Every structure is written in structure tokens, then in C-alpha cells.
Amino acid sequence: MILAGRAIFEYTVFGRVSLPGVIGALALVALTPAMRPAPPLAVATAAALILAGVAVADAARTRRFPAERPSPPGWNERSPGL
Q1: I need a surface site. Which of 33, 51, 60, 62 has the fewest CB within 10 A?
Q2: Considering the entire predicted model, what is its pTM?
Q3: Cβ atoms 27, 35 nearer than 8 A
């Protein structure tokens, strides 16, 4: 849910979706069947490692490409203000 909410937020504000977020969400979905018989601590650890990987990848992207201006889909600088 965290990754889905973040993807919706990024698309609404910036008009893009983070590739590491999509990969992380797919990894969580792919691991779900394998984690069903696993102990809860192993499941939580796997989820935390995937989320940490997404955070590190997003931080690396932010370091390479500094802050950007919001640009929601369908919006351009010449359109009237909201």
C-alpha cells in the first residue's frame, strides 16, 4: 500500500512514476506465495529489505537529479492557475 500510494502521489504531482517503486511492488507481489509458509519475522524482514532498496534507489536518483518542479499530467506553465 505504501508503494501504491507513493506511485499515485508522484503521478499526480510530477506526472511520472518511480521505476524502483514499480519494481519493488512487483517484487513484493512475486514473493507473496513464497512467504505464506514463512515465519512472520522472515516476511517482515523481506518486506523491509525491499522497501529499503526502493528508498536507496530513490535517494540515488534524487542525488543525480536535484529537485524538480511539480508538473501534473495535463498541466503546462501556460495553462491558467488553479
Answers
A1: 33
A2: 0.71
A3: no
